[in-house]
Amino acid sequence: MNKNTIPVFLFIVLFSRVSVGADAFSDGLEAERRGDPASAVELYRKALADRPEDGRAKAALRRAQNDLERRRLNQETEVRRKAKEESLVRKDEETRLKGVRARRVDEGRRFLSDGEFLRAWDVFQRLSDENPGFRPADQGLAKSQKLLQQRIQRGEFPSPRHYAAAQGAVCFGEGRWLDAARFLEKALEGGTLPEDLAAAHMAEYAAEARRRASAPSAGNSLTPLVARSAPEDPTVSREALDEAERTYREGLRLFGTDRPEEARECFKKALALNPRHVEAREALERMKEDPGEAR
Question: 75, 109, 144 — which closes off a domain?
Answer without folding.
Answer: 75
